[in-house]
Amino acid sequence: MSDLVPGKLAQYRRIVVKIGSSLLTTGESELNRPWLSSLVEDLARLAKDGHQLMVVSSGAIALGRRSMQSTRPELLEGLLRLNQSQAAASIGQILLSSAYDQLLSEYGLKAAQILLTIGDTEIRRQYLNAKATIGTLLKWSAIPIINENDTVATDVIRYGDNDRLAARVASMMDADLLILLSDVEGLYAEPPDVNPDAELLAEVSDITPEILAMAGDAASIHSRGGMKTKIEAARIATEAGSAMVIASGRELHSLRRLDQNGPGTWFTANPATRNAKKQWIAGGLHLPGKISIDNGAFLALESGNSLLAAGITKVSGDFERGDSVEVIGPNGHVLGRGLIEYDSAEARLIVGLKTAEIMQRLGPNIRAALIRRENLVLKVENLIGF
């Protein structure tokens, strides 16, 4: 086994590692076994040193479509339809899990398969259950191999990419570090294929509009994500208190290289702590509606109050009570998000109304606030200098 000298990763006890299809598979969509063997070797050393590890792994669809080449050669070309992707995933997931289980067992480690849909992190009860299950596996020193459940996920109800899924897992499991192994060294100030001398950003302490502008798109037909999704993953992870790093996974022993101070872009964790429920709200990916507010409501939120219907100017989207919605300030900026107390049809009926007027319209059994303060997460930077 290669020596993984204690280095940069030593300070992080609980680590999520995300692996993309372009790393795990060859250009012919076959499993890149030498690469995966080197990764598992690094994981085994980290586990031996006391780290708790979770792996979010793409690759099921790519492996599945390759395994069907003799009977369905057309699956190897171009983008797949949804039903084809789901069928390929169901075949490839078995191959993917078997590979991890076989390689980890060589080091006395147990792999555990976890398949998640977006409801498993967006619906509170399912979120808590998923968290408890993964937590138990970590206590047992197993390594969860996590993927989106592509066999049932649809284009409408899905994470859309494993970068954001990995960030949601890191947030859910209170991870110290999220590692996104990519086909690039990190975030560049300019696209490196356009400017070979572009600067690699070593550290990002704040995700500003300038940082967002540096992102690009997905690079291959096997990849749903790109730099934009990695920046969104950084936002989810760092706001939940996890550090994140984007680093190249092209070389063998990518984790060892990163541990020994190899190149990458590190995103600083937000030092502010939230309670578990607000952390879940902040990291949510499914936001079916928007609530626009006036200046009076803005000042009320800034003072720590709940959001009342009297300060609402517009309701957008189609949502149900308990859904997470965005709160939009008078200047059009996103102020935050919260769990709504009314469905969208009721909310539209009470825009701008005071409590007595709401009772007249909806009856006496009304809820005092549209979003209660304890169910509201605000973006501090958008509350300053308004």
Secondary-structure blueprint:
Elements: E1 14-19, H1 21-24, H2 33-48, E2 52-57, H3 60-67, H4 82-105, E3 111-116, H5 119-122, H6 124-139, E4 143-148, H7 162-172, E5 177-182, E6 203-204, H8 209-213, H9 227-239, E7 243-248, H10 254-259, E8 265-267, H11 276-282, E9 289-293, H12 295-302, E10 312-317, E11 324-328, E12 334-339, H13 344-349, H14 355-362, E13 376-378
Question: Could you walk me through the main structural features you see in this protein, from its secondary elements to its overall organization?
Answer:
With 386 residues, the chain is an alpha/beta fold. It has two domains: 8-279, Carbamate kinase (3-Layer(aba) Sandwich), CATH 3.40.1160.10; 287-382, Archaeosine Trna-guanine Transglycosylase, Chain: A, domain 4 (Roll), CATH 2.30.130.10. The chain is built from 14 helices and 13 strands. The protein has helices spanning 21-24, 33-48, 60-67, 82-105, 119-122, 124-139, 162-172, 209-213, 227-239, 254-259, 276-282, 295-302, 344-349, 355-362, and strands at residues 14-19, 52-57, 111-116, 143-148, 177-182, 203-204, 243-248, 265-267, 289-293, 312-317, 324-328, 334-339, 376-378. The strands form two sheets. The protein has an eight-stranded mixed β-sheet, sandwiched between helices. Strands 10-9-11-12-13 form a five-stranded mixed β-sheet. A hairpin with a 5-residue loop joins strand 11 (324-328) and strand 12. The N and C termini lie far apart (56 Å). The model is unreliable at 1-5 and 217-225 (pLDDT under 50).
